[in-house]
Every structure is written in structure tokens, then in C-alpha cells.
Design a protein that fits this description.
By secondary structure, the chain is α+β, with helices and mostly antiparallel strands. About 50% of the residues lie in helices and about 20% in strands. It has helices at about 15-25, 35-45, 50-65, 90-115, and strands at about 1-5, 10, 30, 50, 70-75, 80-85. The strands form two sheets. The protein has a three-stranded antiparallel β-sheet. Strands 3-6-5 form a three-stranded antiparallel β-sheet.
Length: about 120
């Protein structure tokens, strides 16, 4: 998975972050891989771009951990596709990882705010 800055500058994200975003996409119901990638891109306002290689490796990893299940079906354009669903174990993992992510981002915010230079108001 990559992030986009000014259209071309991409930065790799951690594997756990991609897992979390995939699990979140599946909260509303089953979805095929391409739909998950589009949802992540759309919901991040085109900041996160999920490459197919990264996505399908992550989906396989989540399936191996029993956080998602998969079954074959037909996509909206009538193509054969695997549809992924969040399992109960995956739902629990999503709650745990979301809480961890929120603690992490809060801690980073605290550090960034603490080290922000104070603005002096000299006239």
C-alpha cells in the first residue's frame, strides 16, 4: 500500500495498517478485492493507493488468521471474484487494532504538539 503526496510521491505503509484498513472496509459487508482497494482509495480521499500485489497478500494473510473468510461469486460486472467477509475473530481484531491505532496516533500528536515551537508575539 502506498500513500500519495502531490500525485506521485509514494510512501510504503506498514503491513498492519493495511490489515486494519481492509478489516474496516469489510464492516459493512462482503466485498471483492478490487472493491476493497477502491473503498480505501475513495475513503482516504485518494491518499492511500493499494497495489494489487500488496492487497492480495494481505487478504491471504487475514484469511490464514481466520479474520476474514472468502467465497467465490460474481462481481457487479458479472466477473468471477472472491468476496471477503469479516469473521467474528476479525471483528474482535478490528476493535483491538483500532484502539491501538488511536492510542498511537494520540501519542504521536502529543509529541508533535509538545515539540512545536511557541510563537512569540514581538512588536
Amino acid at each position: 500500500m502506498s500513500t500519495r503526496r502531490n500525485n506521485d510521491d509514494r510512501i510504503a505503509l506498514l503491513q498492519g495498517t493495511l490489515d486494519l484498513l481492509i478489516l474496516q472496509c469489510l464492516v459493512l459487508g462482503p466485498c471483492h478485492g478490487q472493491g476493497i482497494a477502491r473503498a480505501i482509495q475513495r475513503q482516504s480521499e485518494d491518499v492511500f493507493l493499494v497495489e494489487h500485489g500488496s492487497l492480495y497478500v494481505a487478504l491471504q494473510r487475514l484469511e490464514d488468521k481466520n479474520w476474514v473468510s472468502a467465497k467465490w461469486g460474481a462481481s457487479e460486472n458479472n466477473r468471477k471474484a472472491r468476496f471477503y467477509s469479516l469473521t467474528e475473530k476479525g471483528r474482535k481484531q478490528l476493535l483491538e487494532k483500532t484502539s491501538e491505532w488511536q492510542r498511537l496516533t494520540r501519542a504521536v500528536g502529543l509529541i508533535l504538539d509538545a515539540n512545536r515551537p511557541a510563537h512569540s508575539e514581538e512588536a
